[in-house]
Amino acid sequence: MARWLRSLVGALLLLEGAAALSFLHHRYEEMVQALFRVQSQCPYVTRIYSIGRSVEGRHLYVLEFSDYPGIHEPLEPEFKYVGNMHGNEVLGRELLLQLSEFLCEEYRRGNERITHLIHDTRIHIMPSMNPDGYEVAAKQGPDSNGYLTGRNNANGVDLNRNFPDLNTFMYYSGEISGPNHHIPLPDNWKSQVEPETLAVIQWISSYNFVLSANLHGGAVVANYPYDKSQDQRFRSHRRTVNTPTPDDKLFQKVS
Q1: Which residues form the signal peptide (predicted)?
Q2: For the segment 19-42, what is each residue's pLDDT rounded down to a tens digit?
């Protein structure tokens, strides 16, 4: 009898967890509601903040998980996830919403591994870096949605190609025996980037992130530094060569 009761309780817990999952696309307002719902369910280990606004004025919300939300604890690693940089690549957006729900639910259940993660790591989750592009794609629907529909932001800019090219600076610095870390941004970089990109760069500058992941959709690929190959000249023509970072093995393992 006791074994049967334990099995029943276990099954009900599984059903409860399954019922909490919503395998649906979330428009902007629905995404915001989902984030605040998680925050209300786990108020003591979560915090929601905005790093800025998109071209059309939508907040770029981040959900933080930590045993001390809003506080950087010395020696505690800070990690960030970013999704939906391309507005019509929705997988990362939905996965990060599911991850947020999962972390909260498992923490409430006393899952030892999740509790350890939240207590010993500060996790920042941004489901959508390009909410404007997502809305463009969502309005088209699945039947008339082209490859480029909603991919860029509201100004028509590909945010994935909008960050300062520090790889090239790094390669040039190597040629002149210059620094290979803490390379400063170009003086005029703010005038060359979109509001979403500016917000993310300032976000990175404000937090001590030690590791990050940016989730795209469409293919199974892992890009990691340096993901832009160095061009070299061979007999008057150019070709790209492998340009690993000093910690390339670690990046491969993490990827």
Answers
A1: 1-20
A2: 455 678 999 999 999 999 999 999
**Local structure of residue 163 (DSSP, 8 states):** S
Question: Quick one: which of 152, 160, 217, 164 has its CA closest to 190?
Answer: 164
Task: Kindly report the CATH number assigned to the domain that includes residue 82.
Answer: 3.40.630.10
pTM for the full model? 0.86
**Where in the sequence is the domain holding 116, given as residue range(s)?**
28-219
The residue assigned the tokens 């002149």 is: 176
Q: Across-strand partners of 47?
A: 64
| φ and ψ at residue 52, rounded to 5 degrees | 155, -165
Structural domain total, the chain: 1
The structure tokens listed for 198 are 């500016």
The residues, ordered by sequence, that sit 6+ positions from 111 with a Cβ below 8 Å of its Cβ are none
Helical packing angle, 112-120 and 91-109, nearest 10°: 110
CB count in 10 Å sphere of residue 188: 8
Residues in Cβ contact with 188 at an 8 Å cutoff, skipping those fewer than 6 apart: none
- The two structure tokens encoding residue 150: 């909603």
Asked if residue 224 belongs to a domain, the reply is no
For residue 40, what are the CA distances in angstroms to 37, 107, 154?
Answer: 5, 14, 31
Residue 102: partners with Cβ closer than 8 Å, 6 or more residues away: 114
Rounded distance between C-alpha atoms, residue 162 and residue 194, angstroms: 7
> Mind listing the pLDDT tens digit for each residue in 175-200?
888 887 888 888 888 999 999 999 99
Tally Cβ neighbours within 10 Å of residue 133: 30
148 inside domain? yes
**156 DSSP 8-state letter:** S
CA gap 17, 5 in Å, rounded: 18
